[in-house]
Design a protein that fits this description.
heterodimer; A: mainly alpha; 2 domains; 10 helices; B: 6-stranded mixed β-sheet; 4-stranded antiparallel β-sheet; binds adenosine-5'-diphosphate; binds magnesium ion
Amino acid sequence: MKVFRQIWTIIVSVALLLALWEAIVRFSDISPALLPSPLVVLKAIAELCRNGSLRQNITDSLWRFAIGYVLAISAGTILGILVGWYKSIFDYLNPILQFLRPIAPVAWMPFIVLFWGIGDLPAIVIIFIAAFFPVLLTTARAVINLDPVYLKISANYGVKSPSILWKIVFPAVFPQIANSFHIALGSAWIFLVSGEMVGTQSGLGFMIVDARNNMRSDHLLAAMVLVGAIGLILDLLIGKAELAILKFWGQTDVH
Amino acid sequence: MYIEIEHARKTFLKQSGETFTALEDVTLSIERGEFVCLLGASGCGKTTLMNTIAGFESLTSGSIRIDGKPVRGPRQDYVMIFQQYGLLPWRSVRKNVELGLESKKISRAERSRIAEEYLKLVGLSGFAEQYPRNLSGGQQQRVAIARALAVKPEILFMDEPFGALDPITRCRLQLDLQRIVRNETHTVIFVTHDIDEAICLADRIVLMEADPGRIKNIFPVKLNRPRYRSSPDFIAMRQRILREFFPVNDTQIEYFI
Ligand SMILES: Nc1ncnc2c1ncn2[C@@H]1O[C@H](COP(=O)(O)OP(=O)(O)O)[C@@H](O)[C@H]1O
Ligand SMILES: [Mg+2]
């Protein structure tokens, strides 16, 4: 029943958005060439599907995203655990991190292009930067705030450093790490488009630039709709995984 | 004596900058195999005293020796059981019990056999493959006890281990604990603020008082086991201890659970 209700609310809210969009197109004097109606955008999506360019672009985007994201969460987790465990490293590192964090990932773009040229790498690096910091900081904080009872147990039952890191510390903070994966996925997906707007010749971000250059606002909106929809699906999937992890760790009563 | 605590003193620096004396001149000896209860109201330093004996905290001054050797830090043969069980939620019950065996040179099959043996001892034979989240509080504490006993510790520290359990589960665990430790002949130091629990379990009750934390009195408990709360000797013992807290005439004391 809960699932049906969930699906129902999604359908209604999407319908409301579409109706609002359609109403704006019809009753305002914005030219349809600038703001096409939902149906026109749907047709554009269908057309892009048929000629195969959409599939190619989505696959390329997802690949870049997967590489950047998986590298970021792996590096963020491992470094976060080390930095949190050896707290004095964290004390020195934290000011640097806090300084770097407000610099938007796109601000790195000129440097990235200078160093690595154009192609897949800039997009991957931007996704990496966007996902890496939240995972690193959350993991380090979780390790620093680890329940001291785990340390007492480790001392009593002969779990020594470094195996304490993967036997006790990592699993104990895993629910928090999983939550940071969730948050990082959202912010990294946002930056996928900016990463692909510079220098790539494919992907959803490229689609947007390409549509702008060709003044195809229907293709532009089609790409935007797809970015939103895929982001939503990824978020739902990782949300489910996170919930399953919380349940396994016995940290929630949600069933 | 097996455990010798001499003039133990422990101070903490409070956030306001003043020093707070959690333990003041505590001197106590404990025999091998003895079951000692530290009894007193919250804040009288029971946990602090136990943490220093177990090596989790160091004293400000004074000394603690176990088997003649000064305590220098936590050890694998002195294990602690906590009020919140301290199980690892990502491990099955069996893997929790095996935790302490993994650092010893014991084969996987042997670890598994030992875990089964101790789970049986605490009455959880069928639960080996369950996860802690599926167990009641009482069952989780039984797992923690099995995990502790599986490493055959010399000393068992228990810090209000039954404090989070309902009274009936609590009584049952008290009875089982007596049976278990009698068979295994460990030295047990058990913290509680429950007078009946202390009488039920202890060979000796160490009564503590706060501000600063210190020993007020020590009562040997010479009742036969198993001990029943309704027996006249039990009630007399309870009266004696209550009189320490409320020094009034016998007839004025009324104590109901
Ligand atoms: N790490 C600490 N820092 C400051 N004060 C502490 C610390 N540990 C315990 N205390 C204080 O010492 C006193 C005794 O605490 P504790 O040993 O936990 O008492 P009990 O276990 O008998 O309730 C309490 O007043 C507590 O606030
Ligand atoms: Mg306490």
